[in-house]
Amino acid sequence: MSIYDRIDEMPDDRVLEAVNLLSGELLGPTPDDEVRANVAAAVGAEPEVLDRSIESSTPKQVADLGRVVLIAAVADGREREVGEALDEVGQKALLIEIVVIGMLALGALHTLRTRGREVVVREQTVTVEPDGKITVKTTESVRYYSVGESLAPFAETLVKAALPS
Amino acid sequence: MREPLPLDLTEAEIRHLGERGRYQEAEATYRERVSKLSPADAVRAGTALIEVREQSGSLAAAGALLEELRDELAPALGGPLPAEVEIAFHNTAGNVLRAVGRYAEGLDEYAVAERRLAETVDPRRWSQTLYMNWVQGLQKLEAHSSAISLLTRLAATEPPTGVLADILASVSDSRYELGEFEEALAMAEGAVGLVPGDLPVEPPMARQHALMALIRVCGEIGDERLVQSARRLVDDELGSGNPSRAAWALATAARVLRRHERAGWRELAEEAQANVAAGRAAVSHHELSGDELIQAESRLLEVLDDVEGLERLLSEAVTPSLPVLTALIALRAQRGELERAGPELRTAWKIELRRILGSGALGIGDVDRLRAIDELRAWTAQQAFAAFDAGSAADNVLLAAAELQSTLMGGFLAWPRSADGEGEGDPLVVLEPRALLADVQDAAVVFAVRAGADVRIVLIDGGSEEVLLRWDASELERTRLEVEAVTRRASPRGDPLSRSARWTELSHSLGTALASRLETDRHVVFVMGSSLGGLPLHAVAGSDGPLCRRHGCSYTASLLQLAGIRARHAQQPRSFERGGVAAVWRTRDLPATRAAFEEGGDAFAKLLRQHNIEVETLSGLEATEKAVTALLASVDLMYVSCHGVGASDGRHAYLVAGEGQLPPMLFRSKPLPGGPDFMLQWDELPDRTPPVVVSAACSSSSGSMSVGGERVSLDRALLTSGTRTFTGPLWDVTVESSTAFSVDLVRRVLTTGGSWGACWRDAVNELAEVASPASWQAFILVGDWR
User: Fold this and answer.
1) How close does chain A come to B233, measured CA to CA in Å?
2) A157 versus B43: which is more confidently predicted?
C-alpha cells in the first residue's frame, strides 16, 4: 500500500494523532502559542480568527487538513518520518483536541512552506478552491480533500506554498 | 397570626421612621404589628426593618436583627410567598451578611433569591439589583472570574445606562484584580463614557464607581487620563461630602504624574492634603468612616515620599493598616532600602494570610484569590535576596519568600480540618520556614524564588540555604514551554527532552550542581512553587547519569502543603485494606490499546489481592464520573488507568465513561452543550480521596498556574482532599509503560515495605532499562514519599 493510500484510509482521529507526532519533527521545541502567532502572521490573520476558523470546522475537515499536511511532508522528502508517525498512532493515551492539533497542522504547513525543501519530490500538484476543496494530483492518482470554507483562506496560502501548484 | 389587615402600611412606616433616624420606633412598630400581618406583609416589614438598620450603618445591629427575624419569619418564608417578597428578603439578607463579612453565606442567600427570580413580575429590575449585589459578594470572595461571567450575562439584559455603567465598572474592578489591566481599562472607559457629568445618573453612585475604576486602572498602568477623571471625581465627591475619596483621587493622580516626572503633581498633592484635613474633621465627627481616609492619606504620604509620616500613621493606628504598610514598603523599595522593610512585610503578610486563608470560606475551587498580592510577593523576594546577600543564609529567608510565591491556598487546604470543614492549620506557619523544614530533615530540598528577571534555584540540605543557580526568569519559563511542546508531540519511542536546547542547558547546570552536593541515596524534594512546575527535575543530568539513578525524588507544590499532608496523616495507618481500580478506554481505541488498559487494571487488581487487599474494579462503561468519584471516596489505594487531559488552559482531568458511552476519540475545547463531557475534572473530585492514588493516565501529573499564582492540577485537588501520595506521568505516555511502571511501583511498596520514594526510584530505573526516555522520564511522585 502506498503511503498516500495509508493516509487516506486511516480514520480521522488517527490522522490527527499522526499530525501531532509529525509536528514534533517539524516544529521542534516551538511552544504552541508561538506556533499560533507564526501561522497568524503568515496568513495575515489575528490568532483569534484562526482559533475560530478551526473551531467552526468539522472534525472531518480538520482531519482532511491533516491529510494534506502529511502529503506535503511526503513531498518535502519526509516519507520516512510520515511513515513512522503513522506506525506510532494509538500508542499514547493522549487526548486528541481538534483545535490544538488543527493549529499544529497549520504550523506544520507553515514550516514546510518556509524551511525550503532540501529534497523535493515534485510528483504532486495541488489546487485549492474557495470553498475549501483541495485536489492533490500525484503520479498515481488524483485525491480530493475538503477543509471547508472556514479554513480555505489559510489553507490556500499555506498549502499552495507547501505543495507545488 | 391574627386577621390580616386589607392594606398594610407597616413597611412604609418603618422606612419612613428609618429615613429619619428613628430606628427604635421603627423596630417597636414592627414588633407591635407583626403578629397581625399576613405572611407576605410580615416579611415585607421585616425586610424593611433589616434594610433600615443596614443602611444606618449599624451593621452589627443589622446582622443580629437578621438572625432574629429570620427565625421569626421562618414559617412565612417557607410558605407560598409572592416571589418578589421572598427575593427582597433574601437579597437584603445577602447584603447584610456580605456587609458583616459573612460572604459565602451572603452568596447562599442570593442563590435562594435567584431561584425565585423567574417568577417575578419584573425580572429585569430584580435581576439587575440582585446580580449586582451578587457580584459584590463574589468580588469580596475574590471570585473574580465568576463575577465577570455573571456581569457579562447581566450586561446582555439591556439595563438602563447608569446600571450598565455600574456593571462595566464592576467588570473593570474584577479585571483589575485579575491583573488584566487592558481589559480593565477598556471597561472603565466604557463605564465613564456612559455617565457624562452633566446628566443625572441612576443609581447616583454609578458615576463615582465608574470614575474610581478608571482612576485605579490608569494609576496602575501610568495613564495620565486619570488626572481628568480624578478632577471629575473630586467634583462629584466634594458635592456629595466625601473629601476622603476626593483626596484619594487627587493623590492617585499626583502619584502617576510624579512617577512620570510630569509637572503639576505637587499642586494635586497639596489639594489632596487639604482634602485629607477635611476628611479628618469628618471622621472625627463620625460623619465618615476612617478606612477611606487612611487609604487617601497613605497614598498622599507615598507621593510626598514621607517615610516618617507613614511610620507615624502606622504607629498611631490601633491595628496595622494594609494601605499604610504597602505605601511604606513601596517607598522603601523606591529608595532601594527594602532590606529595612522586613518587619513591615511580615506584618502585611500576616494581615493578608489571615484575610485569605483564615476566612473559613476557602474551597478547592479558589485559585485566583491571590492575584492582588503580586507586588507584595515581589517585594518580599527582593527583600529576601538582599537579606541573603547580606549573609542570612541560615535564616532561610529565600525559602520563606519562595513559599509565599507558591500554592498558598492549596497548601493550606492540605492541613487537617475540623468536622465542619474549617481548616485547623495556622495560616501564619508559612512565615516560619524552620517549622516547615522540621518535617523534611531526611531530605534535601530544592526550590526556586523569583524577583523580577532573576530566579535563584536553592538547595537546603541540613539547615542553611545555598544558591545552586541563578537563571533568567523568562528563559526558565521558555524552557518550561519547550518541555511541554516537545513532550506532548513526542514519538513514544523518542527522547523528547533532548530536542530542547534550553532544557539541556538547565539540566546539565542543575544536575552538576546537585551531584556534587548530595550524599548518595539522599532523597530530593523538589518544591514546584511558581517557577519549577512542569519540569522533570528528577531527570537532570548529573556526572553519572540522571539524578534519579541514585536518588529518590519527589515533588510538592510547597513545603506548606507537605507539612499539612503529614500533619493530617500522622495518626493514620500506612496499611491498605481496600483498593479501587478504574480502567477506561475510548470507543475506538486500537485493540492493543484497549487490551493494555484492561490487562493493566487486571494486573493491578491481582497484585492488591495477593496482598490481601479487597479490590473493587470499574472497567469500561462501568467507570462513569459518578462511579469513579464514589470509588475514590471509599478506598484507601486507587489505581486510575485511562486517557488523561493536561491542558495549559487549566483543564486537568481523567477521561471517564458517560452513561452508556465510552469517551470519543476526538475532543473539542468547548464541548457541545447538553452532552456529557467525559471529563472528571480536578475540581469535580470528591471531598474525601484515598491516601494513595496511582495514576496511569496521560499528563495526570501536569499542572498549570492560575492568574493568582496557584498550581491547578489533579494532584493539588487530591492532596487537599485526603491523598498523601500521588504518582502519575507529567506528559502523554504509552499505556504499556504507564501500566508497567504503576504495577511495579506498588508491588515494590507492598513487597518490600520500603518508602514510596525509594520504590519510585527503583521502579523508574527499571523502566529506564526497557523503555524510551519519552516514557520513563515522565513519571513523578507528588506529596509524601515515606
Assistant:
1) 37
2) B43
Is B594 found in the same domain as B540? Answer: no
Examine the domain organization and report whether B553 and B414 are in the same domain.
yes
Question: Which residues in B lie closer than 8 A to residue A88 (C-beta atoms)?
Answer: 491-493
Q: Which chain A residues are closer than 8 Å to B642 by Cβ?
A: 93
Q: Is B671 on the interface with A (CB under 8 A)?
A: no
3-class state of residue B251 by DSSP: helix
Q: Do A92 and B644 touch (CB under 8 A)?
A: no
Which chain A positions have a beta carbon within 8 Å of B588's beta carbon? 11, 13
Task: Tell me the per-residue pLDDT of B202-254, one tens digit each, with 9 for 90 and over.
Answer: 776 787 788 888 887 887 777 777 777 777 777 776 666 788 888 988 888 88
DSSP string for residues in B694-754: EE-STTTT-EEE-TTS-EEEHHHHHHTTT-SEEEEESS--BHHHHHHHHHHHHHHHHHH--
Residue B307 lies in a domain: no
CB-count burial class (<10 Å; 0-12, 13-18, 19+) for B643: buried
B543 touching chain A per CB within 8 A: no
Residue A35: closest C-alpha in chain B: B485
Q: Do B643 and A12 touch (CB under 8 A)?
A: no
Q: Which three cell numbers stand for residue A40?
A: 497568524
Is B443 a domain residue?
yes
**Cα(B300)–Cα(B249) distance, integer angstroms:** 10
B630 and B528, same structural domain? Answer: no
Domain that holds residue B583: 575-783
Q: B593: burial class by Cβ within 10 Å (0-12, 13-18, 19+)? A: buried
Q: Indicate if B590 and B463 belong to the same structural domain.
A: no
- Which segments in chain B show pLDDT lower than 50? 1-2, 4-5
How confident is residue A118, by pLDDT bands cut at 50, 70 and 90? very low
Greatest extent of chain B over all pairs of C-alpha atoms, in Å:
92
Query: Residue B636 belongs to a domain with what CATH number?
Result: 3.40.50.1460
| Nearest residue in chain B measured CA to CA from A55 | B668
Q: Total structural domains in chain B?
A: 2
CB contact under 8 A, A31 and B593: no
- pLDDT for B142 equals 66
H/E run at residue B680: strand B679-681
Per-residue pLDDT band for A116 (boundaries 50, 70, 90) equals very low
Look at A91 and B486 and tell me if their CB atoms are within 8 Å.
no
Q: Which domain holds residue A126?
A: 3-162
CA dihedral for B683, B686, B691, B692, sign (positive or negative): negative
Task: Verify that B546 and B671 share a domain, yes or no.
Answer: no
Contact B698 A95 (CB under 8 A): yes
Select the residue from B498, B586, B649, B666 to test the A interface by mutation, using most A Cβ atoms within 10 A: B666
Average pLDDT over chain A reads 85
Tell me the residues of chain B between 496 and 515 that have a Cβ less than 8 Å away from chain A: 496, 499-503
Last-in-domain residue among B562, B585, B602: B562
Nearest CA in chain A to B590: A90
Of A11, A12, A94, the CB nearest to B643: A94
- Nearest by CB: B669 against A12, A23, A97: A97
The three state secondary structure string of B131-185 is HHHHHHHHHHCCCHHHHHHHHHHHHCCCCCHHHHHHHHHHHHHHHHHCCCHHHHH
Q: What is the pLDDT of residues A49-62, one digit of tens each?
A: 888 889 888 889 99
pLDDT at residue A29 greater than cutoff 50: yes
Residues B652 and B557 in one domain: no
Examine the fold and report which residue of B536, B562, B588 is the final residue of a domain before the chain moves on: B562
Residues B610 and B757 reside in one and the same domain: yes
Q: How many domains does chain A have?
A: 1
In a domain? residue B317: no
- pTM for this one? 0.78
Q: Is the same domain home to B680 and B614? A: yes
Whether B721 maps to a domain, the answer reads yes
